[in-house]
Amino acid sequence: MVDLDWKAKMVTPKSPKLSDKSRQSGPPFARAGDLVLASAAATLAYEQYFRLPELSKLLGGRDFPEWKTESLLRPALQGLEITFRFVSIVLSDTRPYANRHEWRRRVEALALHQIELIGAICEEDEGPAPIADLGCASGVLARDRSMSEVWKAPGATTSVVNRTSEGSLLPRLASWHKSEEVAAKIAFAVECHMRRSPFTLGIGEPNLAGKPNLEYDLLCHPADLHALKKTPLDLKNLENQTLFTTHQILECWVFAAREVLRRVEEKIEKTEFQRSAAYCWLLERIWNLLGEIEDLHLLMDPDDFLRLKSQLAIKASESGSAAFCFRSKALLDLTRSTKDLRRRVPQVLGVEVDPTGGPRVQEGAMKLYHRKADPGKIHLLQAFQATEGAVKRFFFGYRELVVISMGSLEAKDQGACDGAYAAAEQPRDQLSQMFLEPPYFPSLDAAKTFLGEYWQYHQTTGLNGSENGDRS
Fold first, then answer.
1. Helix locations, 341-441, DSSP H
2. Per its record, what are the GO molecular function terms (predicted)?
């Protein structure tokens, strides 16, 4: 077994010691209650501007109660469908000073990233999915399906009826000369990333494998979704539609991330640690996607955006808690729940927290890492810490985004003293605290520190000549 007394045998006492803070269940100011939502008026204005009450009804709708994946796949597909609308907005921009080349590249990359995540979600499908198996033996080319086609693969004995969504914007983008290249790339991405899925989306991809089509229109409701494309405020500013659409995509994926997080905890309760790890890695990728969505603001024209900011009266309050992202209830709830994954560490390790503050959880993590007896638990703990990094990267990137878009004064606490940037001064604004706070998983952090020192000790002393050490 791991020799936990090796520290006393070391010639040079270089190993760090556990402090009282590292033995606490969580960072002192990283608790969920410390995240402060913006004022009620600012939150209400945020929700009304982006039409979130109506959007939330579509995101949370349930048309197939027997299908467990619906609650996760629906908001993901709706975020992708809004991205198709965003492609149209970007390519229709007639302003001579707009950065069309970079906008085109970014929205295309955003769509491809979402398709990659949707493919991963479909791979975990637990069925029964609402699909239309349109093989020639049972499929019929309906008269009201003008976007269906029949084809036969070389050497095949049966034909395939491939049906394309009538409500999605992707087939329409494929027929527009400005967007046909983007649409073709998206369609082939769907084909590639759905290879491991039992079905395909049916939004214009080639479907070379002849897979059954998902009932995309019944699941995504694209007509109802695009009915929400108009902003409540009719402002004479082209960046108004950009801001509006960007945040609708963001809210769709925040909704999906909350569902993924629920599944992470559900699989932990069932002790299905490998499945829980798969969902947790998916959560980490969604957090990275959220950062990519927010980065689209960097391409907005500075003068038009600042004029829009004035028109919408977007300004930080003196409390420093009214950054635009803190007006989203869903995003803050996702952040709190993600940070609260630290409470699951003792359950995953199968140990109880020492009421006296002893390093019981840390020792359990060291033994797990060293013995490698349960790889699923190791994968899950690694995914926990990777998700922590994704959360901190998101808020660090958001703070830098605010600085670049609106100036450094908007990114810091208006009530902070002039020495707020001094090394000894603790940051007071929430955005800084989000990425500067201590680790969410101090026991895992300490376990890796001591395990690294353990191997360094054996390397320098030449004890236990086996490369892998004694794992008994």
1. 345-349, 360-371, 375-406, 408-411, 430-436
2. heme binding; metal ion binding
Q: Per-residue pLDDT tens, the chain, 472 aa: give them.
A: 444 444 444 434 343 444 444 334 433 333 434 677 778 888 899 999 999 999 999 999 999 999 999 999 999 999 999 999 999 999 999 999 999 999 999 999 999 999 999 999 999 888 789 987 555 444 444 444 445 555 555 665 555 566 789 999 999 999 999 999 999 999 999 999 999 999 999 999 988 888 899 999 999 999 999 999 999 888 889 999 999 999 999 999 999 999 999 999 999 999 999 999 999 999 999 999 999 999 999 999 999 999 999 988 876 554 444 578 888 999 999 999 999 999 999 999 999 988 877 789 999 999 999 999 999 999 999 999 999 999 999 999 999 999 999 888 777 654 443 443 333 344 457 788 888 889 999 999 999 999 888 888 888 886 554 555 555 5
Task: Decide: 387 and 283 in contact? Cβ < 8 Å.
Answer: yes
The pTM of the full predicted model, rounded to 2 decimals, is: 0.86
Residue 362, strand partner residues: none
SS3 state of residue 150: strand
Helix (H), strand (E) counts: the chain: 18, 4
Whether the CB-CB separation of 35 and 327 falls below 8 Å is answered with no
Residue 165 Cα distances to 153, 220, 399, angstroms: 22, 10, 39
Angle at CA of residue 416, ends 413 and 419, nearest 5°: 125
DSSP percent split of the chain into helix, strand, coil, nearest 5: 60, 5, 40
